[in-house]
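pinned: reference chain
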Amino acid sequence: MRTTVLLLSFLFLGACSSIRVYSDFDRDIDFSGYETFAYFKPEIDKVDISDLDKRRILRALDTQMSRKGLSKSETPDLLIGFTTQAKEKIYVNTWNNFGWGWGFNPWFWGGPSYNTVSSQTEGTLYVNIIDATTKQLVWQGKGRGGITENTKNRDERIALFVEEIVANYPPNLEP
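pinned: its C-alpha cells
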C-alpha cells in the first residue's frame, strides 16, 4: 500500500512538473564575486502579465536568490529582470474505427472517425541576470511549461517555475 502511494505521488509530481529549463551564461565571468542583487525595474515594468503574477515571480526569486547566498542591496552586484512569452498550442487528435465486427467487409473500409481539438497555453519565463557595473547580461535562464488562468495554486506553480530555472545559477564551470 505504501509503495502504491509513493508511486502515485511521483507520477503526480512528474506530471505537474513538465517544465523544460535551459540556461546560458558568459564563461568569462567569475560568479563567485557576486553577493548582492536588486531588481531591474525597467525590464520588469514592461512585462505584460498581472501585477499579482509579477509579485509571485519576485517572491520566488527572493527565495531562490537567498538560498544561493545572495542578499538584496541598494548597491547591488547584480540586477535581476524577467520577461515572459505565451504561445497557444493546438492539438488535433483523430480516432479511426477501422473494421466492422469480426469479419472483413469489402464494401466498408472502416467506421467513422472522430476528431478532437484542444489547446493549451505554453508559457516561457526568462530570468535575466545582469552585472550591475558593466550592465552586461551574464546569465539567462529560461523555463517553458504549461500554466493556465485557472491553475489552482498559481503561487506554487510559479515558485516551481522559478526554482527550476534558477537551479542552474551559478553555473557549474567544472569541465
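why pinned: The radius of gyration is 23 Å. The CA atoms of residues 98 and 110 lie 4 Å apart.
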